[in-house]
Fold this sequence. Notes:
This protein is mainly alpha-helical. The protein has helices spanning 2-7, 15-36, 39-58, 71-86, 88-101, 103-108, 114-143, 150-178, 182-198, 214-219, 221-233, 243-246, 248-273.
Amino acid sequence: MTAVSEIAPAARPGGLNRAVVEITAVAGRRLRHLRRAPGRFVGITLNPLVSMIVFGYLFQRSIVIPGDGSYQEYLFAGAAIQVGLAGVGPTAIAVASDLSGGLTDRFRSLPIIRSAVLVGHTIADLLVGLLGLAVIAGFGLLVGWRAHNGLLGVLAGFGVLAGFIYVMIWLGVLLGMASRSLETIDSISTLVVVVFPFLSNAFLSAEYLPGWLRPVAEWNPVSAVATLCRDLWGNPTTTAGGFPADHPGVVTAITLGLLLAITSLVSLRRYRSAAF
């Protein structure tokens, strides 16, 4: 009944104010749950931290990057992207748990905007992801990452990462809506965190990958986001040719825009029409 009592007053305002109040109420509930379960925050920061330690410190002399730049600077964009990928699983599990536990049924019985529940979930998880990104940025500075294109370049790069994190959160929402099995969600989310970075230029330049794998890595959205962030920060980047390497901003905008549109629209449609 606590969750219901928190959301019910949100139905009183009208129009845009009503939507803002309802989304804020759902996001606040989600943040309070995350505060009582800090393991989720640890989960989204642990993988990037391990990557920077293992690749950036232990194996840095064994890894070749284009040019003569710092590998710690090259690596940082790939490690920061893992914050978004690691957020897919916790979001999916939270959505699936709400569906299986009956909480979503209670939300649907209230006179609130249907989309407020899922949007509130994503806003709360975005705030947690941004906090995790701040932790990774602080650690990156400690191990040698630096930006060289001024404050606007720094802010633009982190803005791209924030957009990527939000798109991955909606991917987690869709995964949670499609599968109620926590074991299945855990397996899929683990593959996302592990496989996507290694099939991209997150840790290694795509030009050093086998020829048959190179096109996959070059067109991977993770590669486009990482290349764009490196360009904005003035960090070493890939020298491989091709449209994705030469126009990472265009590829990032198109792929993330399509993913956001598909995942959000399909998730909201399933939420409105499914009989839970």
